[in-house]
């Protein structure tokens, strides 16, 4: 049987839908859903996810803790609402934005996306990020993602941040550029490290590519999956700025609480 390219393409798509039915099952818990859901999340998961829609730090985008909210509310006339970290530490990026507060539901979902070969989730989670950043009406010239070490990416099969960044770039009509940063060497996973160790772990871990496109006076949106202490976002932002970028914004899927 002769299959022309068109029907081979359709066959491929149909097969993919069978293998990764992202519009039939909730990407978070696996419950059956109908195909009309843009983020492929069921009602329970939409409810269980801690969306970062409350009061957030005006610098890094983290959700502010309740006690801090109360304290801030008492401070009449204070319009800069910063988390403890941003009150004491300088960040290289202009502003950070996030979609969710990183808790157990979010951790489980992101782990499934990263470690279970669920690349198809990138399309849906990228859509969440796109809708979040659209609210900010940012003017950016270029979108890039925090790179992974090539060996690690080959092992995983994809860079989870890159898949989401591409969805955001396409939705905003901004160029996605992965010829900017490289991850120089593989270092220990960050999830068990404290703030100081994280900072040391990312120091010198990234570099601007020798053949990077011109970043002069560019406004860049950097995309990562999780924002914890901001050490990765800072390291990458400072490199981009040293390479000529005018400002760097950071968009993450989830951010740890303060
Ligand atoms: Zn669900
Ligand atoms: Zn902050």
* Main pleated sheet: 5 strands, parallel
Q: Which architecture of the largest domain does the CATH hierarchy give at level 2?
A: 3-Layer(aba) Sandwich
Order of helices and strands: HHHHEHHEHHEEHEEHE
Strand content: 5-15%
Low-confidence parts: none
Q: Helix/strand-derived class? A: alpha/beta
**Overall outline:** globular
What would CATH call the class of the largest domain?
Alpha Beta
Distance between the termini: 61 Å
User: Helical stretch count?
Assistant: 10
Helix content: 25-40%
> What count of domains describes the coordinates?
2
Strand order of the largest sheet: 1-7-6-2-3
Mean pLDDT: 87
CATH fold-level name of the largest domain: Rossmann fold
Rg:
19 Å
Number of strands: 7
**Ligands present:** zinc ion
Key descriptive features of the protein:
258 residues; binds zinc ion; Rossmann fold; 39% helix; alpha/beta; two-stranded antiparallel sheet; single chain; 14% strand; 10 helices; 2 domains; 5-stranded parallel beta sheet; 7 strands
How does this structure look, described?
- The chain has 258 residues and is an alpha/beta fold.
- It has 2 domains: 1-48, no CATH class; 50-255, 3-Layer(aba) Sandwich (Rossmann fold).
- The protein contains 10 helices and 7 strands.
- The chain has a 5-stranded parallel sheet, with helices on both faces. Strands 4-5 form a two-stranded antiparallel ribbon.
- Helix 6 crosses helix 8.
- The chain is globular, with a radius of gyration of 19 Å.
- The mean pLDDT is 87.
- Bound molecules: zinc ion (2 copies).
- One zinc ion (ZN) binds at residues 26, 28-29, 31, 41-42, 44-45.
